[in-house]
Amino acid sequence: MATVRLWTDDDVAADARCKAVFDDIRATRKSDFVNNFWRALANQPDLLEQTWARVKKVMIEPGTLDPLTKELIYIAVSTMNSCTYCTHSHTAAARAKGLTEEQYAEFLAVVSMAAHTNSLANALQIPVDNEFLA
Amino acid sequence: MATVRLWTDDDVAADARCKAVFDDIRATRKSDFVNNFWRALANQPDLLEQTWARVKKVMIEPGTLDPLTKELIYIAVSTMNSCTYCTHSHTAAARAKGLTEEQYAEFLAVVSMAAHTNSLANALQIPVDNEFLA
Amino acid sequence: MATVRLWTDDDVAADARCKAVFDDIRATRKSDFVNNFWRALANQPDLLEQTWARVKKVMIEPGTLDPLTKELIYIAVSTMNSCTYCTHSHTAAARAKGLTEEQYAEFLAVVSMAAHTNSLANALQIPVDNEFLA
Amino acid sequence: MATVRLWTDDDVAADARCKAVFDDIRATRKSDFVNNFWRALANQPDLLEQTWARVKKVMIEPGTLDPLTKELIYIAVSTMNSCTYCTHSHTAAARAKGLTEEQYAEFLAVVSMAAHTNSLANALQIPVDNEFLA
Amino acid sequence: MATVRLWTDDDVAADARCKAVFDDIRATRKSDFVNNFWRALANQPDLLEQTWARVKKVMIEPGTLDPLTKELIYIAVSTMNSCTYCTHSHTAAARAKGLTEEQYAEFLAVVSMAAHTNSLANALQIPVDNEFLA
Amino acid sequence: MATVRLWTDDDVAADARCKAVFDDIRATRKSDFVNNFWRALANQPDLLEQTWARVKKVMIEPGTLDPLTKELIYIAVSTMNSCTYCTHSHTAAARAKGLTEEQYAEFLAVVSMAAHTNSLANALQIPVDNEFLA
């Protein structure tokens, strides 16, 4: 249960700023489904507008990294932040963008390998090689 | 300064298990440079052998994710774990594998976007949509 | 479900050390409600006594930071530690101390802004300016 | 040492987008000093523009939380993310905004208290009270 | 609900690689119960084999640290990573290995003490004494 | 460089509350060396007194966990919090209490194993088995 009310479609319809964002989410994603993240942010219109504008630009507009790679980076960050919500939502998004079981297995192998070596490097306080600073 | 001694090439030459790993690192990477991470792990031969075997398999053997994507996932995890060593070493590795400034900028945009939304989802304790659990 | 038993009021009544702490929690807060955190700590009387004494001193005794500011700092830490329990309990506490929707929205904007810039500073390993060390 | 080049004032002067942001930072802060964070972000103009626009709005424009409270929340997040850069820069900012030693001591008491109880709540996996979810 | 299917015993029986691992888990632990962690990893046979081989070597083979100490270290890491699953499973494992209430109370006191001082050292950015680097 | 001044012995000698704590640290540890952590906390006498009283009770008074086990738990927490200061100081403390290279190697193996499985359990969002909740 969230610390804030999750806005229903009726709530959103009654608020012009929120309605504009929800309309754009639906149009951009070509889907009527709007997930709870946005229904929670609707309580804070400024944060809602800013966050959606940024998600749209970073995750949806074409760039030099392909959309699936971006989702994998997103899941990696969300996993390390122990963010249940974002781990679920972006794993679903990665699947919708074609993530195969083989790719997911490799992703998990990289994430767990990094977590393993990070803990060693931090425990041992290994100094960075000059070669990496050049 | 590390919590353990960093092994020199002379130290390594005098220890058969460590020498075998260092030889394989050099042969696999086609480079004489062996970074401090391995020189620190040399104090724990079992961990050295196991970690190198795993890094070789996960990061170097061909798979379905391309090598640059794997490095980006690695940097994302290392950044969230505040691991200075691994952030530097894998950013250098990503550059060696062709990371462009445009790709790096997009990577940073995704990481910081994820950190932003993770903090909101965790602060608001947003429940996962049933649609993501299907 | 906790890893330990949550003590009922009957359990507490039968243990003098726990009863003294629970009595003081109720008297200090002027409320009969004692939340699960203390019911879990009741299994470890030393930790119960020490933690309550500290919470009372730090969060309840008057100081130079106002009570609401202290709650916001508490929620910020709890969010970054992905602590579901403390995020919920201290958001409720902040509301009880008068947190408005506008203040909560600004709090969330600051937290997510900090998470955003933290991830960039850690990814880029930006050196601290001398001006900040003076 | 950063993973990217830190832009000098000469570098910035030669790039219209970066120059516009740096000019606005100087004008807004009424100071010629521009810290390394922005000199690192100058390599990614989109991120530079977006981040500065957001910092300006969230941290500088007047709102319902006072500027010092916002800095304390920022330091709390940065501390939990082990972000050396942001901890130093925002502690300096808090001091510039009038943070007293008494307030700093109370801030540290709250942060360490929260870290203490977060670790207990997470270790004990304490279920959230229904009272907090109402 | 997991992001992957949890394999039933029938699923496992139909896959030679997974069956070999599950058989070894049961034989090693002298118990028919196989917990969800392995049922989730069964989707990624390489990760399943590698992780089980490592867990068996690190956590089960005799060494110089006693089994209960290893479980306490495991819970400490899992708590700081906010890993609900591993906190529960390794607290149960520690109890099965004889953890007493007194030991658990002391463990919690150390973990929360460390979390407290970590947050202070990171907030204050205290430089490491030369004496610790010798 | 710390965000606060590190108190010299002369500074401490001029403040009765700080002097009492420093005297007790020296008497308890039977050593004239007082590390920077306490010299930083000296700026906040209440925090200094409370933290030392707790460290003395938790880490120094005899209990049911042996002193070396407590140090290993402390290092595990400090590593996961990326606390450079506490990782160094408590690794030094563990060595002073007799930590052998074999024990340290096993400790590192457990910590990195836990970090590995934590990341998998969090990425896969594996539900806790009922058997662990009983």
Please characterize this protein's 3D structure:
6 copies of one chain form a homohexamer. With 134 residues, chain A is mainly alpha-helical. Chain A has 2 domains: 1-61, AhpD-like, CATH 1.20.1290.10; 64-125, Up-down Bundle (AhpD-like). In chain A, 72% of the residues lie in helices and 0% in strands. The longest helix of chain A is centred in the C-terminal third of the chain and has 24 residues, at 101-124. Chains A, B, C, D, E, F: Pfam families: CMD. Chains A, B, C, D, E, F: It comes from Terriglobus roseus. Chains A, B, C, D, E, F: GO terms for molecular function: peroxiredoxin activity.
Keywords:
homohexamer; 134 residues; mainly alpha; AhpD-like; 2 domains; 8 helices
